[in-house]
Amino acid sequence: MGTAFRGNKVIEDIYDIRHLNISSLVQSAFQNCSGLKNVTLPSNIKSVGNNTFLSSEIISCVIEPGGITSLSDGMFFACTKLQSMTIPEGVMSIGGSCFRSVGLKNIIYPSSVTTMGAEIHLYSRLSTFVILATTPPALSGNRMFSSGSTPTIYVPDEAVDAYKSATNWSTWASKIRPLSEYDG
């Protein structure tokens, strides 16, 4: 499949890739797809290249369980219309700038996440950040959010102190709250 869809203005969703005999999407495969609105990444997709959906006009994305375990660097970079994201258990790594400059207001990361790259949510509109991991994921630096726009960070109740004192997470200690306070 390669980058055949890069810059495509007609394709609106990629749900049917489940019927193709492919297990990966290459770097920039759907970059600048102005018609692409809905993405469902089926379980047959096991890896995704960097910047796969860079600057596309995606509104919603669902990642089905049993597929990819890593969201690549810049995977949704500059998808400014992205409003809904479903990340299943089993995803362990979030690449740098993965959700940089996106329209998401809320995000929930599963308990399986163990590492997060730098600048994941830089220049984004995020107001609520939920992470279900009881052990704070390793962070690549302390610049996950834009200066002055750190969202409220909800973590498992029993892990609040661990997050507040963890390397790089301690930067946002005043924004870290117990999950029991989350009303989303």
- Unreliable parts: none
Instruction: Find the count of extended strands (DSSP E, 2+ residues).
Output: 13
**Which oligomerization state do the chains in this entry correspond to?**
single chain
Helix content: under 10%
Our estimate of the beta-strand percent is 15-25%
Inertia-based shape: globular
Please write the CATH class name. Answer: Alpha Beta
Distance linking N and C termini = 38 Å
Biggest sheet character: 4 strands, parallel
Strand order of the largest sheet: 5-7-9-11
- Reported by name, the CATH topology is Leucine-rich repeat, LRR (right-handed beta-alpha superhelix)
**The named CATH superfamily:** Ribonuclease Inhibitor
User: What is the tally of helical segments?
Assistant: 1
The average pLDDT value, as a whole number, equals 94
Helix-and-strand structural type: mainly beta
- Rg calc: 16 Å
Using the 3D structure, state the CATH architecture. Answer: Alpha-Beta Horseshoe
**Please, how many domains?**
1
What string gives the helices and strands in order?
A: EEEEEEEEEEEEHE
Observed structural traits:
184 residues; 1 helix; 3% helix; globular; mainly beta; four-stranded parallel beta sheet; Leucine-rich repeat, LRR (right-handed beta-alpha superhelix)
Question: Could you explain how this protein is built, in words?
Answer:
The chain has a four-stranded parallel sheet with strand order 5-7-9-11, with no helix packed on it. It has a four-stranded parallel sheet with strand order 8-10-12-13. A three-stranded parallel sheet has the order 2-4-6, with no helix packed on it. It has a single domain (15-181), classed as Ribonuclease Inhibitor (Leucine-rich repeat, LRR (right-handed beta-alpha superhelix)), CATH 3.80.10. By secondary structure, it is mainly β. α1 (160-165) links the parallel β12 (152-155) and β13. The chain contains one helix and 13 strands.
